[in-house]
Amino acid sequence: MEFEGGDDKTFNQEEIQGLIQESVESVLASATYTHPKVQLWQATIVENILKKLSQLQRPFKYVVTCMIAQNTGGSTHTAHTCFWDTETDGFAKLRFETTTLVCLTTVYGMAI
Questions:
Q1: Alpha helical stretches, state H, 29-109
Q2: Tell me: the pLDDT tens digits for 92-101?
Q3: In what order do the strands lie in the sheet with 60-70?
């Protein structure tokens, strides 16, 4: 299938991972975990990602999640499952870690 811009109507995981990385690093690259700032950081990251996704002008609905926690040396595990069209839909994720924080960001894209 073709849509405006001539690209396939498939979720490009590599491209979306790049968008996630840009957005996360722009907010957290020099950050030190500070609990009162976490909510602002999360909002900024997800809003930046959604802006970049909308600029792609692709026929997708997106869900963006961002979890930021203090890095105490413990492990963090997440799981997800989706019921979707495996030919077009997909997800991309990024784990960003510093000595003081861990950020897990995921973008789900469903073709419309």
A1: 38-55
A2: 999 999 999 9
A3: 60-70, 101-111, 90-97
The token duo for 87 is 């030919």
Q: How far is CA 80 from CA 4, 33, 35, in A?
A: 31, 26, 26
> Tokens standing for 97?
């870690």
Give the three-state DSSP class for 93: strand
What are the b/e assignments for 51-67, b being 16+ CB within 10 Å?
A: ebbeeeebebebebbbe
Residue 63, pLDDT score: 97
Paired strand residues for 90: 109
Query: d(Cα 64, Cα 83) in Å, to the nearest integer?
Result: 17
pLDDT digits (tens, 9 = 90+) for 40-90: 999 999 999 999 999 999 999 999 999 999 999 988 888 989 999 999 999
Residue 87: strand, helix, or coil: coil
